[in-house]
Amino acid sequence: MSEKTEHHKCLIIGSGPAGYTAAIYAARADMKPVMIQGMQPGGQLTITTEVENYPGYPKGTMGPEMMEDFKAQAERFGTDIRWGFVSSVDFSGPVHKVIVDEKTEMTADTIIIATGASAKWLGLESEQKYNGFGVSACAVCDGFFFKGQDVAIVGAGDTAAEEATYLAKLCKKVYMIVRRNEMRASKAMQHRVMNTPNIEVIYNSETKEIVGDKAVTGARIIDRNSGEERLLAVTGFFVAIGHEPNTQIFKDWLDLDETGYIKTIPGSTKTNIPGVFASGDAQDHIYRQAVTAAGTGCMAAIDAERYLAAQGVH
Asked: Is 141 marked active-site?
C-alpha cells in the first residue's frame, strides 16, 4: 500500500461515454473529479468503427475519435484522468476506499461507477480479425451499414430475436444461427421471428469460421447433428449471445441483479450504498447505447453533487 492515502471528493471508475460525461459535469460543479480509466480506456466505443447515431455528429464519426473528443472535454474542465484499473473496493465506511492496480489506496466521498459491459463473443479467431469489418455485437449500432445485404446473427434469446427482427427491416436476408433445436427467447419474440419472412432460422448449428477478404464475405456453419458444413454468403455477422457487465469487484458491496448488472434506485443512479452511484452499461442491460450511457453519466454527477451538498462537503 502507498504510505499516504489520496483523498478526493469524487472518483470515477471507468472511461466510456458514461464516465466522461460524469467527469464533465462533476468538474464543472467544482468536484475536482479523478478518473481511473480502466482496462479499456474509452470503453466499447474504442472497438467500434463508425458511429452514426450519436447526436451532434451529422456526418458520423469514428468511435475512438469520439472518445478522444469526450476525453478532451473532460480534461478541459479539470478532470484528473489517470491510467490504471481499480482492482478492489471497500465500501464499508462512510468514506469509500478503492485500490488501484492492486497497490495504491485512494479514498473518496463519492464514487461514480462507469465500468461498462463487455459483449460475449464466440471465441473464434476470425471473429476478432473481422471485428469492425463486418463483425459486430450490436445490431442497433451497426445494422444500418448492411442495408439491402444478407447478414447472419448468432443467438437464441430475446436480444437475438429482437436484433434479428430489427435487421430484417434493413437487410435483404437474415440468417439466425441457433445452437440448439429451439430458441430460448420468449414465445412472443419467437412468433415475431417466425412471422418475419426474410429471417431464416438455422437450428442445431454452430459457427465454425467467419470468412472474408478485407471484410466479411461469409460464415461457415456446421450442423451439430449431421456434421454437415454449409457456407452462408453474408457481408455482416452479428453476435447476440449476451453481454457481461464489468461489475465483479463490486459484488460484495452492491446489489446486483441475477446477471450481474448493478441495481439502482429507479429514477436515479443511486446504489444501495450512500455516496456510490452507477451509470452506463454497468447498470443498463436494456438500451446499451452511447447516448443513454452519457445521459446516466450526467445523472450520476448531479446525484453525487447533491449528495456532497447534503453531507456538507465543500
From this structure: yes
How far is Cα of residue 50 from the mean position of the Cα atoms in its chain?
16
Q: Indicate the pTM of the whole model.
A: 0.82
Residue 298 is a catalytic residue: no
Span 211-256, pLDDT tens digits: 999 999 999 999 999 999 999 999 999 999 988 999 999 999 999 9
Q: Low-confidence residues of the chain, pLDDT below 70?
A: 1-4, 48-49
Which of 193, 220, 239 finishes a domain?
239
User: 144 in a domain, yes or no?
Assistant: yes
Q: Which of 10, 109, 142, 284 is catalytic?
A: 142
> What are the start-end ranges of the E strands in the chain?
6-13, 34-36, 50-51, 61-62, 80-82, 86-90, 96-100, 104-113, 117-119, 135-136, 150-154, 173-177, 199-202, 205-212, 216-223, 229-232, 236-239, 243-245, 276-278
Active site residue 158: no
Residues 100 and 131 in one domain: no
* Residue of 69, 80, 90, 138 marked active site: 138
> What residue numbers bound the domain in which 232 lies?
121-239
Q: What is the rounded CA–CA span in Å between residue 49 and residue 198? A: 27
Q: Any idea which residue has 451497426 for its cell?
A: 142
